[in-house]
Design goal:
By secondary structure, the chain is of the alpha/beta class. It has eleven helices and 21 strands. It is globular and about 75 Å long.
Length: about 350
């Protein structure tokens, strides 16, 4: 049975519906609530459980968080975010480092050549666990603002004097004065805004897969040594790279193995498959000892993420009348711009 909820209110304030309750959707919700907007969020998942292990934000993004609402950087810090470098008092800057992960030195098998490092300034890059940050953001939002298990099907524009009508897969409907799609790289709102047949309505496979995991810091130090484990490094080699940085108050590292894939992704309706440690070991066979030792600490099975983006067909416009896009729905990028959620914020 269809149930319609109305956005009308005694004060006549316009209601904004946000489709998608990921990091960008919740940050936007907090900011709109701060300025007194009436907001409702509809998320298709059964609960708030962000995936992808870790995430990092630049200092500029964190400053933007503070401008949107000071509670957002507080939520970030309470989720265990840490600077991704720990140079100490002598060198407090954060650095992004690219090092040789492939060449093996006969004299010292654990030696790795530094290709390049880029200073991001003090606390210039902070890493945290995605799930813990999302849980902290949820606590900043009043009850009843978010509805779960709501997969959007259609948005009907019934004319300028009427509210937009949203219909969900479960048969329920709601009304809104404006809709913002924060529903990710496979955004349904983007399809509605541009049209089903528009080439930018659907993302393209970047021919890269990501194996993501969290590893206890003690195990990471065993594999990499203390300096590499407690500082961000990107190990580079043929057809793959392995990125890691500290999270969770330096008790863990976020480790992601990126592997190039010449094949097409079999089912673009499902971007996550089951991956194994053996898959990762095969992709990094022959690499230097620290990389192989870290991969030995990966779990037996983990999520294997197909990386989709909008590079081939960029979205020509982020809004059309009362529909708008934000985050990956608008400008999904592939690694390593370090600007997915950051760009959305």
């Amino acid at each position: 049975m269809s149930t319609t909820t109305s956005s009308s209110s005694p004060g006549g304030e316009p209601e904004i519906v946000i489709v998608g309750g990921g990091i960008v959707g919740l940050v936007l919700t907090i900011g709109l609530l701060r300025v007194g907007a009436k907001v409702k969020v509809y998320e298709q998942a059964q609960g708030f459980r962000e995936v992808g292990a870790g995430i990092a934000f630049t200092a500029n993004v964190i400053r933007c968080m503070n401008l949107i609402d000071p509670s957002i950087p507080v939520a970030l810090r309470s989720s265990g975010s840490v600077a991704t470098s720990s140079g100490g008092a002598e060198d407090p800057d954060d650095y992004l480092r690219w090092i040789d992960g492939y060449e093996r030195h006969r004299e010292d098998p654990r030696k790795q050549r530094l290709f390049y490092k880029l200073s991001a300034g003090p606390r210039g890059f902070e890493g945290c666990r995605r799930d813990q940050f999302l849980e902290s953001l949820v606590k900043c939002i009043p009850p009843n603002v978010v509805e779960l298990k709501k997969r959007l099907e259609t948005i009907e524009d019934r004319g300028e004097d009427q509210k937009l009508l949203l219909t969900f897969r479960d048969g329920t409907t709601t009304e809104a004065d404006a809709v913002i799609g924060c529903d990710g790289v496979k955004s349904r709102v983007r399809q509605i805004l541009l049209g089903e047949d528009h080439p930018a309505s659907r993302p393209s496979y970047s021919h890269c897969v990501a194996y993501r995991t969290l590893i206890p810091m003690a195990q990471a130090i065993e594999a990499l040594g203390e300096y590499k484990a407690t500082n961000q490094h990107n190990h580079v080699g043929p057809n793959a790279n392995l990125l890691h940085y500290p999270v969770a108050n330096n008790t863990m590292i976020n480790a992601v193995a990126f592997v190039r894939d010449a094949n097409e992704w079999a089912d673009d309706s499902q971007t996550v498959a089951v991956g194994t440690r053996d898959d990762v070991k095969a992709a990094f066979e022959g690499w230097c000892a620290p990389v192989r030792d870290l991969i030995e600490r990966f779990p037996d099975t983990m999520s294997k993420w197909a990386i989709f983006d909008l590079w081939e067909f960029p979205v020509p416009q982020y809004n059309n009348d009362r529909l708008c896009l934000a985050g990956d729905a608008a400008h999904a990028t592939s690694p390593h711009h370090g600007a997915g959620a950051g760009q959305g914020i």
